[in-house]
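<instruction>
Derive structure tokens from the sequence
<data>
Labelled lines for chain and fold
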Amino acid sequence: MPSKVISVNPLDGLPQSSFKRNPLHQVRVLYVSYVRGLFAQAQPGQYHWCDGEESEIFISDEAPVDASSVGQRPAISFTRSAVQFSSLGHDDFLKYDFETGRKTKSVLVPGVMSINCCSSNDLESEYIAWIVAEHLWLLREQLMKLGFFEIGRQITVSSPSPAGSLVANDAGQEWYCTSVASPFQFPRTSQFTPLNKEVIQNIEIQLRAGHSKAISVGVPASPNGDLPFNAHSCRPGSFHPGASDIHGRSPDPAGVHPAPLPTAPHPLNPAVRVFIRSVNPF
């Protein structure tokens, strides 16, 4: 029979899965459902599969296959290899919640699913294996939408060989098997939260009081131009020689007057002299 590529999605009607409860079982369910849906799209007389005795091909996830149940039909069974957790980084750490102490980890779990295509004719088993392998590669996106991270690449198809322990109770009938090795990967993300975890033990606060220290930033700006000081005029005090008696200070009877305040030209108007009074700079 010539090879014919099926363009219909063989997983139509299959409920979506999140690989949440039993991911290994879900891998087997998706593979079996995919192959059953693939041959369900075939026309009668071309290995059409249906759920009943009229099915032209026997597809089961059980191993070994019972020859008394298969009869003269070809059969397909599934055998999963060992899987291994592939580390994605230090401690497979994804994120951490400081409020609850919840830690989330994530890994990739790769494995290989062996799809055993058995028949009493070696060429027939080889042909069925090729149909399965080609459609796994061609329609791999359909399986990736259901939770696989990687599938449908680097598929290998073995040569036809005696079925061995794959078919039980064959009553001396010679069975041949061609195996399709389909590598797969699916992501696994899990998290755990410690019970009775004391997230914050205590918070210590220390307050210190002291004198503030002013750091000099240079000469202050002056509103009078470029001069670093402000000049202003004021009336002389009562101790000045020119003060009258009404200010409570009269000239000394002995005629000795206190030393007058020194004068200097006004910084803004040199023609005018002003008194200079010392001011404590602190």
About this structure: The mean pLDDT is 77. The domain at 23-86+108-189 is CATH 3.30.70 (Alpha-Beta Plaits).
